[in-house]
Amino acid sequence: MMTIGEALKEERIKRGLSIRKMVGDIIDPSSYNKVEKGMRNIGSDALVRLLFLHNIDINEFFSKLEDSYAPAFTVREKYLDQQMRVAFNQRDLKKAEEVCRKIQELKGKPVLKLRAIVAIAYLKNNVENLSEQTKKAIFDQLDKNDDLSNNIEAIKLFANTMPVFTNEQLNYLMHIYISKIIKRNDVSISDQKRFAIASVNYLRACYERKIPLNDSMLEIENYIMKINDTSFLVYKGLVKLSLAAIRGDKERAEQIKRELIDIGYEIARKWII
């Protein structure tokens, strides 16, 4: 659990800033010091201005505060979501099924419930055989999102359920996602990474289904390659690998695959070109 003051202090220390440099002319340094110590509150206007001043990811910042400020039912949802991720990463089917049952008992939260069902299907290596009712529910949930690029839970669902869509549905949803994100001016690094993961999954699915090169693929290439952040090196490599394979340039694809393996991305060995 973390308070706003503690979260601000963490961000300040991470950036190596003094209190005076942290606040600039937004708030009195002594008043801000009391915020960090939990002795006073900070106004929403001042808080947002501080976050923008230091390019602090707003979604990540407030996610640190959920356990302290969110209602009990929200905290339980987050806890179950975390438990499902742990069970999935540990390939613990029994635990995952237990958590999934608890998630299905929650009120509302259709996307979280569908993600849990899909996680179980992945552990059973049975995603393609999900019921038609479940497949339709997944598509309907994603299709009704006016701005897929701003819905983190929906993005996760989309990135992990591509095998269940028809080619037309897959291309349609990816087009919607791309068209929204390339128009946004407030895309954080976290947003870009979620987009990169979904894009890599989409391109891999297109290659496996023999979907020919299209505008969405070219927009992905253009967007991802322009991201100036070294943490995207593997994503860029996977995009280049996928597109080389889709374009039929097997020699180039094999070269990129070897380069990814050389930098330690062993999962690239599973790519069959």
What would you report as the Rg, rounded to the nearest angstrom?
Answer: 21 Å
**Helix percent band:** 55-70%
CATH topology type of one domain? 434 Repressor (Amino-terminal Domain)
Helix count, DSSP H or I runs of 4 or more residues: 16
CATH class of one domain: Mainly Alpha
Overall pLDDT level: 90
Strand content: under 5%
Q: Kindly report the name of the CATH homologous superfamily of one domain.
A: lambda repressor-like DNA-binding domains
Q: What general form does the structure show? A: globular
**CA-CA gap between termini:** 47 Å
Assign the CATH architecture of one domain: Orthogonal Bundle
Helix and strand succession?
HHHHHHHHHHHHHHHH
Question: What does this protein look like?
Answer:
This protein has helices at about 5-15, 20-25, 30-35, 45-55, 60-65, 65-70, 70-90, 95-105, 110-125, 130-145, 150-160, 165-180, 190-210, 215-225, 235-245, 250-260. With about 270 residues, it is mostly helical. The protein has a domain at about 5-70: 434 Repressor (Amino-terminal Domain), CATH 1.10.260. The N and C termini lie far apart (about 45 Å).
Note the main attributes of this structure.
273 residues; mainly alpha; 434 Repressor (Amino-terminal Domain); 0% strand; globular
Could you give a quick summary of the protein structure above?
The chain has helices at 4-14, 19-23, 29-36, 44-53, 58-63, 66-69, 72-89, 93-104, 110-123, 132-143, 152-160, 167-181, 189-209, 215-225, 233-246, 250-262. It is an all-alpha fold and 273 residues long.
